[in-house]
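USER: Study each token:
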Amino acid sequence: MKTLARQRGPEQASSQGQLALLKSLNAQLDELVTLEAQVDCEEWIALRARAVAAVHHHNTVRRRLRGTLLAIEAEETETQRCRNEIDRIKAEMRGIELERDAALSIERQAVLKRDIELLDRDWEDLRRPIPGKDGAAAAIRNLGFLKPLVDLAESSSHIFDLIDEANPLLPSPLHAELPSKPKRLDEIARELVEAMPALTSAIESIRQRLVREEAELSGRHKQLGDQIAAAKEGRRVLSPNVQAMIARLMAVGMKPRILAEMVDIAEERWASAAEGFLGVDREAIFVAPEHCHPATDILARERAQFRRVRIANTRKLRSMRRQVDRGTLASIFQTADPLAEAFLVYRTGSVQLAASKADFDRPGRWILDDGTYDDGIVIDVKEPQDGLKLGAKGIVSGAAIAASEFAAVVRHLEAKREDLRVYATIRLTWSSSTRSTV
């Protein structure tokens, strides 16, 4: 038994040593696993940080790209608007050229020829000064009465100097005595004949101008009278060409409306700036989308009669954006019409309301409530022409302006008609005096 115990002692000691070694290895393995787990965790944290940074960079690039695309779209929209404005101005210029070419009608030319023939006979009568109240002497005196009506150009002034020199040398209209210094009178008569074309041209220019101005004032007098009557009946005062186009469209079965009738101002302090910015667009004519092309055809064919008239493209407007952004000029308008709303969003939706001129240093287009407008690179002041037109206040404002202009036109018209009466009286006296000497 003792021998067996002694044999087991070394074996048991060897097993215990191996067990201790295995435990040590197991501890080292556990430590290695822990270290590998820490390494994996640190690598995962580094990868996640890189992924978060990449996502942040991606989002930043996307925001910049979106802003750049919006800026490009705004620039393209503004470029197209400028092109449309250039086309409109060119169309107006063509209309004005057509009006200028049609100014001298055949009937007017015939009247001018008859007047020139009468003046030719008057010139011939001046060659033979004859004493007496019905002779050429009286004709020379009568020429002096034209001086207030003729612009004193150098040639006309020379003619009137000759007449002033001849007056004391002419015989009395009540006596048949011969004139004093007949040789000098003959010389004056010859000089008058030579200089008469200049006076005739000046006289005819005055007559044409007086007739033209009287006709223009008469037309404006009637237009203003119609506008004042419309305002008294609660109707809006519109530009004559716009009124004519509305009547033209109604005559072919359309139902035209204008923007000023469809829109009101929600914030009164912005009224002047808003109307100044819209300008002629306040009288833009709206028709049903199916009538848009026929109405445009009428405007194109008859542009000479309807200058500065605008027709809204309702075919496009019915599918255009109507969302009004806060803080823009479009937000101060009120309308229940979807076409008018789309029109205003397109025209004013990109113009931001400025609190002060400091906003002009920021990107975009800005406008102050006093009408000062920054289109991005140029600053000007928008003022409503012909008063306010939008909403109910537009009717009152338009009536007041029309009444004020009506009074001024009446005064000018009276003055022009008086000038024409004076011209006709003097010319008739001159013509009858000179013809009686033939």
Notes: Strands lie at 257-258, 264-265, 285-286, 333-334, 351-353, 365-367, 372-374, 379-381. Residues 106-228+414-435 form one domain. The chain has three domains: 1-103, 106-228+414-435, 254-388. The chain is about 65% helix and 5% strand.
